[in-house]
Every structure is written in structure tokens, then in C-alpha cells.
Known about the structure:
With 338 residues, chain A is an alpha/beta fold. Chain A has 2 domains: 12-186, Dihydroxyacetone kinase, domain 1 (Rossmann fold, 3-Layer(aba) Sandwich); 188-337, Dihydroxyacetone kinase, domain 2 (Hypothetical Protein Tm841, Chain: A,domain 3). Chain A has 8 helices and 13 strands. In chain A, helix 4 (157-170) runs antiparallel to helix 5, helix 4 (157-170) packs across helix 8 and helix 6 (235-250) crosses helix 7 (270-286). Chain B is mainly α and 223 residues long. Chain B has a single domain (4-213), classed as DhaL domain (Serine Threonine Protein Phosphatase 5, Tetratricopeptide repeat, Alpha Horseshoe). The chains are: A alpha/beta (338), B mainly alpha (223). Chain A binds chain B through residues 13, 56, 78-88, 109-111, 114-115, 117-118, 142, 152, 199-200, 202-203, 205-209, 220, 222-225, and chain B through 23, 26-27, 29-36, 38-40, 43, 69, 71-82, 84-85, 120-121, 176-178, 181-182, 184-185.
Amino acid sequence: MSVRTRLFLNNPADAVSEMLEGYAAAHSDIIRLSDGMVVRATPKPEGRVGVVIGNGSGHEPAMIGWVGEGLFDVNVPGPIFSSPGPGGITAGIRAADRGGGVLLLVSSHAGDIMNAELAIDEADDEGIQDVEMVILYDDIASAPRDRITERRGGAGLFFVWKMVGAMAERGASLAECARIARKARDRTRSLSAAMGTVAHPVSGQPLGDPDDTSVAVGLGVHGEAGTRLGEDVEADQISELMIRRLVEDADLPAGAQVGLLLNNGGSLTILELSVLYRGARAELERRGIQVSRSWMGSYATTLDMAGFAFAICHLDDELLALYDAPARGAGFVMPGTH
Amino acid sequence: MLDGDLSRRLIDAARHRVCDHQDDLSRLDAVAGDGDHGVNMATALSEATGRIEGLSDPTPAEVFSTTGRAFHDAVGGAAGALFGAFFGAIGGQMNRSGNQAAPADLVAGMEKGLSRVMRIGRVEPGRKTMVDALSPAVGAARTAAELEASLAGVLQAAARAAREGAASTASMEPGAGRARYAAEQSIGTEDPGACTVAYILEAWSDVAQGAHTNDDIGMGLRP
């Protein structure tokens, strides 16, 4: 399998800034660019909690497509696959401050956490004190359950983004928004799979071994290695294995109600996604778990990675109401209801 | 002694060295990371030298602090945060030195930088990170400074220890950072962050040896 090393770009070093200009121009009714940050075209009313996130680029629509009503107030995009620096995140905190406090959400990756912590200190030095940071993780392949706080962030965090965004839009306090972030995180699990790899658009380096064409389960969003399943494994076997691991890790009892997310890691076809979804849905039903909401599409991508992730969120009435609250973002789609 | 001009030359030499090796560093990073370490380090150091050029007659403190901020602003990520903290700590230490820093001031700044890197990165030696080059380098530099070595002597000791430290990461199993998710793949490969530390200190050592020699020649020719 070959890795696509040439992309439709100008100078690769300008890819991120040119992407932001184009994306904001195409969705100018929802977002605009401000000092390299993506902000809402219509800011949230004064006095409400601002929600902000910084993240590496190359994972679109994460998170530039999730700025808007009922979602994020500010996204600070970093370089490809790298968190923005502390200065950028501090600027994001400042821009998101509507006088009701700022919630900084962090998908757990070493660089994202370090820069967020440095930024919180900078914001504090500037006199912005009502800032809370919540570190989020969901990827069950990255650490065992007894070291759950060492897990990294994955596609399941889209449940968290949606629910926290709805909570802040409603006018809930900073403490309440942070509580929902932790609650949704603790009820969410994800696991990813991929074959092959992608090349870094700036350095041209493939992430991982480009000659290994087997299917791997448990890869990270930057191509970090996972468990190899071989080449002749069928879609249903993969869906079944992944759902089994997710349900067991979450201790989901029969009768539980979940949201199911099937994230396209980049280049999968709707043909493949639908086949994988079918297998996952069947496995959950076999286990007596009720899938009441579904998302299937591109959420957190890794450029054109031939991979995907399943995520489940154990819903209750509070989370379900937040999940169903209206929202608008350039890359946001309301979940299917069953 | 380390003045503003020599400080500027140290950062410029680091930029040259890292730019020359950026593809090697990115290849090392691609084994367990995302393959952009060399590009990021080259970008940050180029940003730093660009900003330093804009300063008129900078002190050593201004040169190193500007370098730290360039890492934070230009690359982000874990490497940006950690290398930025390292250079920033040296700048902070040099604030007390005016325009003439002693080798011991540089060593004190490097020590402070090492401890910040370990705190922010939550990492100890032996976990296949930049600390495995930086920690022995700082130790060797401290010993050399205690023996009242010249700047050239201090940096030569630091560079040798950093290179040995970087080489020792090849056999280590990663315990921190992104590489820990690809533990098996990364065994046998040196940590790119540790290699960057070695390249920077080797470049500094070469500049200091040159500066030292020129001083000697200069003094010898003076009537």
C-alpha cells in the first residue's frame, strides 16, 4: 500500500494558515478568523461561560468545524499535529472570556497538557482568574483501566464537546460546565483501527511503517502504533472485537442506553463506514445495549488516514438532553435518533 | 565570558546544526511520533534567530529569553513547550548577569532549565526523552564549571555527555510522551528530542572552541 505523499497544497509550511482562511471564508455565517484563532461570528451573550480548546491541525473538522452556537466559542489551531503554544492558548482564553468564566478543555496529549498549563499560568498573571481546565481522555488502548487518567483523547470526546457546549449555551456556571465535562468523559470510551499510514504534509515523513499493510487496532490520532490483526480480517470481525472491548471496559450492563459514534479517520468511504456501523450496531444489540443516537462521519481525522474509531457514550437523561440541544458549527451534524 | 554577541552566535550555530540534521531528526520521530520533530526544531530556531536579529545590542538574557518565546510561539506541542522552557530558564538566570555572563551563570541557567523541563514534562531520566541527554549534559557542565573550566571547556563536557546520553536512549523503553504508545517500535531508535539536545550543545561547544582560539590568537598578536 502506498502512502500519499503529495497533497493539493501550495507551500506546505503555509498549509494551516491557508486552510484557516479558506475554511472561515466558506463558513463566514458561523465563524471568523481573529489573530489565527477561529471564533464565533456571533459571540455568545455576556455573562455566560466561554468554552475554548487548542489542538493540533490536520484533524479537521476538529476543532475548527465545532466553533459556533452550542459548541466552542474559540478554537486555537496549532501547527500540524502539534498543540499551539501557551501564548496562543492564553489569547484564546482572553477571546472566550464573556465575563462568566472560561472553561479550557484539553484532549489528553502530552503537548496539549503542557501548553495548556503554561497558558493557565499566563492568564492568571494577566488577571484572568476564572479559568478552569478539564483534561479529557477516552481511548481505551492507550492505558489500562486502573491508570485511566493516563489515557489519551480520541474521537469519543465529541460527545463531551457537544454536551459541554450545550451546558454553557444554557447559561450554566463554570463549575456546572466542568462537572458535565468530567461526567461525559467518565461515561465515554473510544477505540480506533487503521491500515497503512499517512505522511506528514510538511516533513513528508510517513507516520509509522508505510510498508505494514495489516489492520491495527488501538492506533493514536497521530499514527501511534497499535495491535496488529493481520490482513485478512473482515469488517464484521473488527467491529465485533472493538465493540466488545469498549463495552467491557465501560462495564456497560444490558439495558444501557448509548450514543454510538463511528468516526472516519480520513479516507474511508461511506460504503466501508456503513458496513462497519452495521456490524457494531448488531454487536451492541446482541448485548442488549440500546443505541439511541448515532453519529457516522468525519469528526477527528488524521489527514487521509485509512482508519476509523468507534466510541460509545453511556447516556442518561441529563446527558441525552444536552446531546439533543440545538447547535450550529461548520462541521457539525445533529445525531441520528433511534 | 558570554556576552550578547556570543549568545547570538550560539543560537545561530544551533539553528545551522539542527537545520542540517532536520531530516534525520524527523525520521527518528516518525518511528514513534508524528515525523515532524526536525522541521519543528528548525522552524523554532529560525524564528528565534529572526527575532534576535531585530534586537539592537541584546544582552545574553534577551537572546535566550527571545529564543524560549520563539519555541513557544512557533512550534507549540510538547517539544515547543519543553525546549521553550529550557531556553527561557537560561534567559531568566542571565537577567542577573548584565552583558557579561560567566560560564557558571550559563550552567546555573541550564540546571534551572533541566528542572523546569522535568517538572512540566513530568519526566525523570531513563524514560527515553530529551532529559536523558540534558541531565548528563548539565551534570558534566556543572562538574567542569566547578573545576573552573572556560566556557569552551564547560560546553565541550556538556556536548560529549549529551551525545552519550542521546545514544543511550536507543535501548530505552519509552516511559513518557507520545512514544510510550509505540514502545516496541521505538526500541533501537534514539529519542529525537535527546538528539536535538546533543546537536545544540555540540554546536555551542564548537562555537566556544572557536571563540576561545580566536581570543588566544588575538591576545598573542596584541603588542
